Amino acid sequence: MECRESRERWDDELDGMLAGSARRKLLRHLAGCARCSEELARLRRALEALRETSLVEPSEATRAGLARVARGEERMPAAVPEVLELREVAAYLRVALADLEPLLDELPGFEIAGQIRFRREAIDRWIGEQERAYRTRLRTSVVRMSAG
Amino acid sequence: MDELTDEQLMLLVKHDNAEAFDRLFRRHGRRLLGYLSRTCGDRGDAEDLVQEVFLAVFRARKDWRPVARFSTWLYTMARNARANRWKQGMRERARTAGFAAERIGPGRGAAPACDGPPQRLAAGETEAAVASAIARLPARQREVLLLREVAGLAYEEIAEVASLALGTVKTELHRARRRLAGILDDLR
Questions:
Q1: I want to staple B137 with a disulfide (CB 3.0 to 4.6 A). Which of A147, B24, B142, B143 is the partner?
Q2: Do B50 and A52 count as a contact with CB atoms less than 8 A apart?
Q3: Percentage of residues in chain B with pLDDT exceeding 90?
Protein backbone atom coordinates (compact mmCIF):
# COMPACT_ATOMS: atom_id res chain seq x y z
CA MET A 1 0.00 0.00 0.00
CA GLU A 2 1.16 3.49 -0.90
CA CYS A 3 0.99 6.45 1.48
CA ARG A 4 -1.72 8.04 -0.67
CA GLU A 5 -3.95 4.99 -0.47
CA SER A 6 -3.29 4.75 3.24
CA ARG A 7 -4.43 8.34 3.76
CA GLU A 8 -7.68 7.68 1.91
CA ARG A 9 -8.54 5.01 4.45
CA TRP A 10 -7.97 7.10 7.56
CA ASP A 11 -11.49 8.47 7.87
CA ASP A 12 -12.94 4.96 7.68
CA GLU A 13 -10.43 3.79 10.25
CA LEU A 14 -11.26 6.71 12.58
CA ASP A 15 -14.96 5.89 12.20
CA GLY A 16 -14.31 2.25 13.03
CA MET A 17 -15.65 1.27 9.61
CA LEU A 18 -12.56 -0.49 8.32
CA ALA A 19 -12.49 -4.26 8.70
CA GLY A 20 -11.03 -7.45 7.33
CA SER A 21 -8.30 -7.41 4.72
CA ALA A 22 -8.65 -3.66 4.03
CA ARG A 23 -7.83 -2.95 7.65
CA ARG A 24 -4.98 -5.48 7.77
CA LYS A 25 -3.41 -3.80 4.72
CA LEU A 26 -3.61 -0.38 6.34
CA LEU A 27 -2.14 -1.62 9.62
CA ARG A 28 0.73 -3.27 7.72
CA HIS A 29 1.48 -0.01 5.95
CA LEU A 30 1.35 1.97 9.19
CA ALA A 31 3.75 -0.45 10.85
CA GLY A 32 6.32 0.29 8.17
CA CYS A 33 5.65 4.01 7.60
CA ALA A 34 6.56 6.31 10.48
CA ARG A 35 5.14 9.37 8.75
CA CYS A 36 1.65 7.94 8.13
CA SER A 37 1.53 6.38 11.53
CA GLU A 38 2.47 9.65 13.26
CA GLU A 39 -0.07 11.59 11.16
CA LEU A 40 -2.91 9.22 12.02
CA ALA A 41 -1.95 9.26 15.69
CA ARG A 42 -2.10 13.07 15.59
CA LEU A 43 -5.63 12.93 14.16
CA ARG A 44 -6.68 10.43 16.82
CA ARG A 45 -5.28 12.64 19.58
CA ALA A 46 -7.12 15.70 18.25
CA LEU A 47 -10.48 13.89 18.06
CA GLU A 48 -9.91 12.33 21.46
CA ALA A 49 -9.26 15.80 22.94
CA LEU A 50 -12.41 17.11 21.26
CA ARG A 51 -14.60 14.32 22.62
CA GLU A 52 -13.04 14.32 26.05
CA THR A 53 -13.57 18.04 26.61
CA SER A 54 -16.98 18.26 24.94
CA LEU A 55 -18.97 15.56 26.68
CA VAL A 56 -20.46 17.17 29.75
CA GLU A 57 -23.06 15.59 32.01
CA PRO A 58 -26.33 17.56 32.24
CA SER A 59 -27.18 18.65 35.77
CA GLU A 60 -29.26 16.40 38.00
CA ALA A 61 -31.86 19.20 38.19
CA THR A 62 -32.40 19.03 34.42
CA ARG A 63 -32.79 15.25 34.52
CA ALA A 64 -35.11 15.30 37.52
CA GLY A 65 -37.23 18.09 36.01
CA LEU A 66 -37.76 16.12 32.82
CA ALA A 67 -38.51 12.93 34.73
CA ARG A 68 -41.14 14.81 36.75
CA VAL A 69 -42.84 16.06 33.59
CA ALA A 70 -42.86 12.56 32.16
CA ARG A 71 -44.39 11.12 35.30
CA GLY A 72 -47.09 13.78 35.12
CA GLU A 73 -46.26 14.85 38.62
CA GLU A 74 -46.46 18.53 37.99
CA ARG A 75 -49.76 18.75 39.80
CA MET A 76 -49.00 22.01 41.57
CA PRO A 77 -47.06 24.40 39.40
CA ALA A 78 -44.70 26.42 41.59
CA ALA A 79 -46.39 29.58 40.34
CA VAL A 80 -49.54 28.98 42.45
CA PRO A 81 -49.27 31.34 45.44
CA GLU A 82 -49.79 30.40 49.08
CA VAL A 83 -52.64 32.87 49.48
CA LEU A 84 -55.39 32.85 46.86
CA GLU A 85 -58.12 35.18 45.70
CA LEU A 86 -61.62 33.76 45.17
CA ARG A 87 -61.15 33.45 41.41
CA GLU A 88 -57.86 31.62 42.01
CA VAL A 89 -59.63 29.23 44.38
CA ALA A 90 -62.16 28.56 41.61
CA ALA A 91 -59.34 27.87 39.14
CA TYR A 92 -57.57 25.68 41.71
CA LEU A 93 -60.75 23.64 42.28
CA ARG A 94 -61.48 23.70 38.55
CA VAL A 95 -65.01 25.02 38.86
CA ALA A 96 -66.65 28.20 37.60
CA LEU A 97 -66.51 31.22 39.90
CA ALA A 98 -70.33 31.30 40.00
CA ASP A 99 -70.37 27.73 41.38
CA LEU A 100 -68.29 28.83 44.36
CA GLU A 101 -70.50 31.71 45.40
CA PRO A 102 -73.14 29.58 47.22
CA LEU A 103 -70.25 28.00 49.18
CA LEU A 104 -68.74 31.29 50.36
CA ASP A 105 -69.86 30.78 53.99
CA GLU A 106 -68.33 27.34 54.06
CA LEU A 107 -64.93 28.03 52.49
CA PRO A 108 -62.12 28.76 54.98
CA GLY A 109 -61.36 32.33 53.99
CA PHE A 110 -60.26 35.39 55.93
CA GLU A 111 -60.76 39.08 55.47
CA ILE A 112 -58.03 41.61 54.92
CA ALA A 113 -58.46 45.25 53.95
CA GLY A 114 -62.08 44.56 53.08
CA GLN A 115 -61.23 41.67 50.75
CA ILE A 116 -61.56 37.93 51.12
CA ARG A 117 -58.51 35.67 50.77
CA PHE A 118 -57.82 31.95 51.24
CA ARG A 119 -54.73 30.09 52.35
CA ARG A 120 -54.04 27.27 49.87
CA GLU A 121 -53.31 24.98 52.80
CA ALA A 122 -56.73 25.73 54.32
CA ILE A 123 -58.38 24.97 50.98
CA ASP A 124 -56.54 21.64 50.85
CA ARG A 125 -57.80 20.81 54.37
CA TRP A 126 -61.30 21.79 53.35
CA ILE A 127 -61.05 19.41 50.35
CA GLY A 128 -60.07 16.66 52.81
CA GLU A 129 -63.24 17.32 54.86
CA GLN A 130 -65.36 17.19 51.72
CA GLU A 131 -63.79 13.86 50.80
CA ARG A 132 -64.63 12.38 54.20
CA ALA A 133 -68.21 13.71 54.03
CA TYR A 134 -68.57 12.23 50.54
CA ARG A 135 -67.39 8.79 51.69
CA THR A 136 -69.83 8.86 54.63
CA ARG A 137 -72.69 9.74 52.30
CA LEU A 138 -71.72 6.92 49.95
CA ARG A 139 -71.61 4.39 52.80
CA THR A 140 -74.99 5.53 54.13
CA SER A 141 -76.63 5.16 50.74
CA VAL A 142 -75.11 1.68 50.27
CA VAL A 143 -76.41 0.61 53.70
CA ARG A 144 -79.82 2.05 52.89
CA MET A 145 -79.92 0.25 49.54
CA SER A 146 -79.00 -3.14 51.01
CA ALA A 147 -81.56 -2.63 53.83
CA GLY A 148 -84.25 -1.77 51.30
CA MET B 1 -34.50 -1.63 29.48
CA ASP B 2 -30.82 -1.34 28.70
CA GLU B 3 -31.04 -3.88 25.91
CA LEU B 4 -33.74 -1.91 24.06
CA THR B 5 -32.83 0.27 21.07
CA ASP B 6 -33.58 3.99 21.12
CA GLU B 7 -36.44 3.38 18.74
CA GLN B 8 -37.98 0.70 20.97
CA LEU B 9 -37.65 3.01 23.98
CA MET B 10 -39.33 5.80 22.02
CA LEU B 11 -42.27 3.52 21.25
CA LEU B 12 -42.66 3.00 25.01
CA VAL B 13 -42.46 6.78 25.53
CA LYS B 14 -45.22 7.12 22.96
CA HIS B 15 -47.35 5.09 25.35
CA ASP B 16 -46.45 7.46 28.20
CA ASN B 17 -43.72 5.32 29.76
CA ALA B 18 -41.72 7.72 31.96
CA GLU B 19 -38.90 5.30 32.67
CA ALA B 20 -38.18 4.83 28.97
CA PHE B 21 -38.03 8.60 28.60
CA ASP B 22 -35.54 8.89 31.46
CA ARG B 23 -33.47 6.14 29.85
CA LEU B 24 -33.34 8.04 26.55
CA PHE B 25 -32.24 11.17 28.38
CA ARG B 26 -29.48 9.29 30.18
CA ARG B 27 -28.30 7.87 26.87
CA HIS B 28 -28.32 11.10 24.87
CA GLY B 29 -28.20 14.00 27.35
CA ARG B 30 -24.42 14.12 27.61
CA ARG B 31 -23.78 14.15 23.86
CA LEU B 32 -26.59 16.60 23.19
CA LEU B 33 -25.34 18.99 25.88
CA GLY B 34 -21.80 18.72 24.49
CA TYR B 35 -22.97 19.44 20.96
CA LEU B 36 -25.12 22.41 22.00
CA SER B 37 -22.48 23.84 24.35
CA ARG B 38 -19.94 23.82 21.54
CA THR B 39 -22.25 25.61 19.13
CA CYS B 40 -24.15 27.84 21.54
CA GLY B 41 -21.30 29.54 23.25
CA ASP B 42 -22.77 29.35 26.71
CA ARG B 43 -23.07 26.28 28.92
CA GLY B 44 -26.13 27.62 30.75
CA ASP B 45 -27.95 28.40 27.50
CA ALA B 46 -27.07 24.95 26.23
CA GLU B 47 -28.44 23.24 29.32
CA ASP B 48 -31.71 25.20 28.94
CA LEU B 49 -31.86 24.08 25.34
CA VAL B 50 -31.27 20.43 26.25
CA GLN B 51 -34.26 20.62 28.56
CA GLU B 52 -36.32 22.38 25.89
CA VAL B 53 -35.42 19.79 23.26
CA PHE B 54 -36.29 16.82 25.47
CA LEU B 55 -39.56 18.48 26.48
CA ALA B 56 -40.33 18.90 22.78
CA VAL B 57 -39.55 15.21 22.26
CA PHE B 58 -41.92 14.27 25.06
CA ARG B 59 -44.70 16.53 23.82
CA ALA B 60 -44.35 15.21 20.26
CA ARG B 61 -44.22 11.56 21.41
CA LYS B 62 -47.59 10.71 19.90
CA ASP B 63 -46.28 11.76 16.47
CA TRP B 64 -43.25 9.49 16.67
CA ARG B 65 -42.99 7.00 13.82
CA PRO B 66 -40.12 4.54 13.81
CA VAL B 67 -39.26 5.32 10.18
CA ALA B 68 -36.14 7.30 11.10
CA ARG B 69 -33.57 6.81 13.83
CA PHE B 70 -34.33 8.48 17.13
CA SER B 71 -31.01 10.37 17.09
CA THR B 72 -31.82 11.89 13.68
CA TRP B 73 -35.10 13.18 15.10
CA LEU B 74 -33.47 14.42 18.31
CA TYR B 75 -30.77 16.44 16.55
CA THR B 76 -33.22 17.85 14.02
CA MET B 77 -35.23 19.16 16.97
CA ALA B 78 -32.06 20.43 18.64
CA ARG B 79 -31.07 22.42 15.58
CA ASN B 80 -34.56 23.92 15.31
CA ALA B 81 -34.57 24.88 18.98
CA ARG B 82 -31.14 26.45 18.62
CA ALA B 83 -32.24 28.43 15.53
CA ASN B 84 -35.31 29.71 17.39
CA ARG B 85 -33.18 30.71 20.35
CA TRP B 86 -30.85 32.54 18.04
CA LYS B 87 -33.71 34.47 16.42
CA GLN B 88 -35.11 35.28 19.86
CA GLY B 89 -31.72 36.59 20.96
CA MET B 90 -31.55 38.75 17.86
CA ARG B 91 -34.98 40.23 18.51
CA GLU B 92 -34.21 40.93 22.16
CA ARG B 93 -30.96 42.60 21.30
CA ALA B 94 -32.67 44.59 18.60
CA ARG B 95 -35.28 45.76 21.11
CA THR B 96 -32.80 46.80 23.75
CA ALA B 97 -30.62 48.50 21.20
CA GLY B 98 -33.64 50.26 19.71
CA PHE B 99 -33.07 48.95 16.20
CA ALA B 100 -35.17 46.83 13.87
CA ALA B 101 -34.01 43.19 13.96
CA GLU B 102 -33.10 43.21 10.27
CA ARG B 103 -30.60 45.96 10.77
CA ILE B 104 -28.34 43.96 13.02
CA GLY B 105 -26.50 41.24 11.19
CA PRO B 106 -24.41 38.58 12.92
CA GLY B 107 -21.03 39.88 13.93
CA ARG B 108 -22.26 43.42 14.50
CA GLY B 109 -22.69 44.56 18.07
CA ALA B 110 -22.95 41.89 20.76
CA ALA B 111 -22.97 38.28 19.57
CA PRO B 112 -26.52 36.90 19.56
CA ALA B 113 -27.33 33.98 21.85
CA CYS B 114 -26.63 30.53 20.39
CA ASP B 115 -24.42 31.70 17.61
CA GLY B 116 -20.75 30.70 17.74
CA PRO B 117 -17.89 31.06 18.12
CA PRO B 118 -18.16 28.93 21.23
CA GLN B 119 -16.50 29.84 24.45
CA ARG B 120 -14.54 27.55 26.73
CA LEU B 121 -16.56 24.88 28.50
CA ALA B 122 -14.21 24.37 31.41
CA ALA B 123 -10.79 25.25 32.73
CA GLY B 124 -7.66 23.52 31.48
CA GLU B 125 -5.15 23.83 28.65
CA THR B 126 -6.69 21.16 26.42
CA GLU B 127 -10.08 22.79 26.72
CA ALA B 128 -8.66 26.21 25.85
CA ALA B 129 -6.94 24.78 22.77
CA VAL B 130 -10.01 22.80 21.61
CA ALA B 131 -12.36 25.77 22.10
CA SER B 132 -10.15 28.08 20.11
CA ALA B 133 -9.55 25.47 17.39
CA ILE B 134 -13.29 24.90 16.94
CA ALA B 135 -13.90 28.64 16.79
CA ARG B 136 -11.47 28.83 13.88
CA LEU B 137 -13.22 26.18 11.78
CA PRO B 138 -15.59 27.31 9.02
CA ALA B 139 -19.19 27.01 10.26
CA ARG B 140 -20.14 24.03 8.09
CA GLN B 141 -17.04 22.06 8.99
CA ARG B 142 -17.61 22.79 12.67
CA GLU B 143 -21.20 21.58 12.46
CA VAL B 144 -20.35 18.34 10.66
CA LEU B 145 -17.41 17.62 12.97
CA LEU B 146 -19.49 18.11 16.12
CA LEU B 147 -22.41 16.07 14.80
CA ARG B 148 -20.01 13.21 14.10
CA GLU B 149 -17.53 13.31 17.00
CA VAL B 150 -19.62 14.72 19.83
CA ALA B 151 -23.19 13.78 18.87
CA GLY B 152 -21.98 10.47 17.43
CA LEU B 153 -24.30 10.55 14.40
CA ALA B 154 -23.74 8.36 11.33
CA TYR B 155 -22.85 10.07 8.02
CA GLU B 156 -26.35 9.50 6.63
CA GLU B 157 -27.88 11.06 9.72
CA ILE B 158 -25.63 14.12 9.50
CA ALA B 159 -26.65 14.54 5.86
CA GLU B 160 -30.31 14.49 6.84
CA VAL B 161 -30.04 16.62 9.97
CA ALA B 162 -27.88 19.30 8.35
CA SER B 163 -29.55 19.09 4.90
CA LEU B 164 -26.29 18.28 3.12
CA ALA B 165 -25.43 15.79 0.40
CA LEU B 166 -23.72 12.67 1.70
CA GLY B 167 -20.61 13.46 -0.34
CA THR B 168 -20.44 16.93 1.20
CA VAL B 169 -20.62 15.44 4.70
CA LYS B 170 -17.66 13.18 3.89
CA THR B 171 -15.43 15.87 2.40
CA GLU B 172 -16.29 18.44 5.08
CA LEU B 173 -15.62 15.95 7.86
CA HIS B 174 -12.35 14.93 6.24
CA ARG B 175 -11.24 18.58 6.07
CA ALA B 176 -12.51 19.43 9.53
CA ARG B 177 -10.60 16.59 11.18
CA ARG B 178 -7.33 17.57 9.55
CA ARG B 179 -7.86 21.22 10.23
CA LEU B 180 -8.64 20.58 13.88
CA ALA B 181 -5.49 18.49 14.29
CA GLY B 182 -3.44 21.16 12.51
CA ILE B 183 -4.74 24.01 14.66
CA LEU B 184 -4.31 22.01 17.86
CA ASP B 185 -0.70 21.27 16.91
CA ASP B 186 0.00 24.94 16.28
CA LEU B 187 -1.52 25.88 19.62
CA ARG B 188 0.52 23.41 21.62
A1: B142
A2: no
A3: 60
Taking the CA of residue A12 and the nearest CA in chain B, the distance in Å comes to 10
Q: Please report residues of B whose CB lies closer than 8 A to that of A12.
A: none
Angle between helices A60-70 and B18-40 (to 10 degrees): 140
Q: Which of the four pLDDT bands, split at 50, 70 and 90, describes residue B137?
A: very high
Domains of chain A: 3-54 (no CATH), 78-147 (1.10.10)
Among the partner residues A56, A58, A71, nearest to B121 by beta-carbon distance: A56
- In degrees and rounded to multiples of 5, residue A96 shows phi and psi of -75, 150
Q: What angle do CA A87, A91, A93 make, to 5 degrees?
A: 115
Name the architecture of domain B1-112. Orthogonal Bundle (1.10)
Whether B133 contacts B177, CB under 8 Å:
no
CATH dotted code for B124-188: 1.10.10.10
- The whole-angstrom separation of Cα A87 and Cα A107 is 13
Cβ distance A43 to B181 less than 8 Å, yes or no, reads yes
How far is B43 from B119, CA to CA, in rounded Å? Answer: 9
Chain A residues bordering chain B (beta-carbon distance below 8 Å): 11, 14-15, 42-43, 45-47, 49-59, 62-63, 65-67, 69-72
Mean pLDDT of B13-33: 93
